[in-house]
Amino acid sequence: MWEGYVNCWIGSESWGYMTRVVGIKDVAERAGVSITTVSHALNGKGRISPQTRKHVNEIAKQLGYHPNATARNLAGGRSGLIGMAVAQAGEGNFAISDYKYYAELISAASVAALECGYALMLASAARVEAWERIPIDGAIIVDPVARDPLIEHVRRTGTPLVTAGRVPGAKHGYWVDSDHRAVTHACLDHLAARGAQRIALLESLPTTSYAIDSHAAYEEWCAEHRRPVIATVTRKDLTEGAGYEAALKLLRRRRPPDAVHSTLERVALGAMLAAQALGLSVPHDLMVSGCADSEASKWARPGMTTVQLHPERMGAEMVRIVTALIEGRDPEPSQVYVPSRIVLRGSTKRRVLAPAVVASQG
User: Fold this and answer.
1) CA distance 320 to 176
2) Measured between alpha carbons, how far is 175 from 336 in angstroms, rounded to an integer?
3) What is the rounded distance in angstroms from the CA atom of residue 222 to the CA atom of residue 298?
4) Would the pTM of this model clear 0.85, i.e. be above it?
5) Most buried of 24, 83, 95, 220, CB within 10 angstroms?
6) What is 27-79 written as a DSSP string?
7) Those residues with Cβ within 8 angstroms of residue 139's Cβ, 6 or more apart along the chain or in another chain
8) pLDDT tens profile 110-159
9) Rounded-to-integer distance, Cα 85 and Cα 262, Å
10) Residues ≥6 apart with Cβ < 8 Å to 201
11) CA-CA-CA-CA torsion for 348, 349, 355, 359, nearest 10 degrees?
């Protein structure tokens, strides 16, 4: 999947003590073909034989040649800029710098864009007027919300658009996502296998596809397993404080949950703090799991069970799709689910009860 990325750094060839940029003419001379043939071979165009195409690409690799991104963009009437924004951050809900998930996703997208001759421009989703003044070739919107003014602006201008997470309510589009329904089912299954009977869900407002999918999967799972629905929406800041506040209310109920799963890692960490503040043992009195993973979860006491969403893969995949759209190529696949995995730690390491004992608990 990842072998298909194209390294677009400008190559060079050593000549004595000097280094000069290798041009398309050098490749043509060494390969013994015309400049037009080289261009077609490297761009995957034109009617040339597979043998010639392979030969030209091998020579280009030997010489260290790669297309000049600036010249290519100018020739194509492009700016070489890809705009990127996190939709929820535009609403003032949280700072993306506080989340490792967003840092890794943006960093990977930036590297992938540079390797393909583009620069990634990170901007606020709330300042649509700023986007109107900057000529971008494509746009990446992370965690899009329904009827987002920025997405409407991008679509209105005809700019290629890729999203991390699907636009709520949209039936079509180009996107990269995690399968949050499957993730939620897997986490709930894990908690239930460890003896949990009353599993609460700490979640954000249902404005994004991941929040909508997670909540739907939670209700489906509860109905299938005949468990009570204990879902609570936290404050908009989505921090440890929000999780602490929401979990404290849940744990003070007459019949509190014996496990908590959160769609956000920091909220789940707050739930662990709330349990400890009330003198509850994690995992023996309350098991906790969260979505996304960071060093904070690893070094918590006990370590917190999380879901690794692989944001670095998501960032690279989004750039693959948007650059293909910019350059008029078919981005296949154009809708991608990046695999996830549960990282098991101490917060759910409860002794597994025998099935008969579990069934007898109320």
Assistant:
1) 11
2) 6
3) 29
4) no
5) 83
6) HHHHHTS-HHHHHHHHHT-SS--HHHHHHHHHHHHHHT----HHHHHHHTT--
7) 82, 83, 84, 85, 131, 154, 159, 160, 161, 162, 322
8) 999 998 889 999 888 777 887 888 889 999 999 999 888 889 999 999 99
9) 24
10) 214, 215, 218, 230, 231, 232, 260, 261, 262, 263
11) -40
Distant-in-sequence, close-in-space partners of 55: CB < 8 Å, separation ≥ 6: 31
Query: Which structure tokens are listed for 236?
Result: 């908009």
pLDDT, tens only, 257-279: 999 999 999 999 999 999 999 99
* Separation of alpha carbons 336 and 244, rounded Å: 34
> For residue 13, which amino acid is it?
E
Question: What is the Cα Rg of the chain in Å?
Answer: 25
CA distance 33 to 17: 29
For the chain, how far is it from start to end, CA to CA, in angstroms?
A: 47
Distance of CA 198 to the CA centre of its chain: 30
- What angle (nearest 5°) sits at the alpha carbon of residue 347, between those of residues 342 and 352? 85
Q: What's residue 72's pLDDT?
A: 56
Question: Which 3 state secondary structure label does DSSP give 218?
Answer: helix
What is the per-residue pLDDT across 43-68, written as a single tens digit (0 to 9) for each?
A: 766 678 888 888 988 888 888 776 65
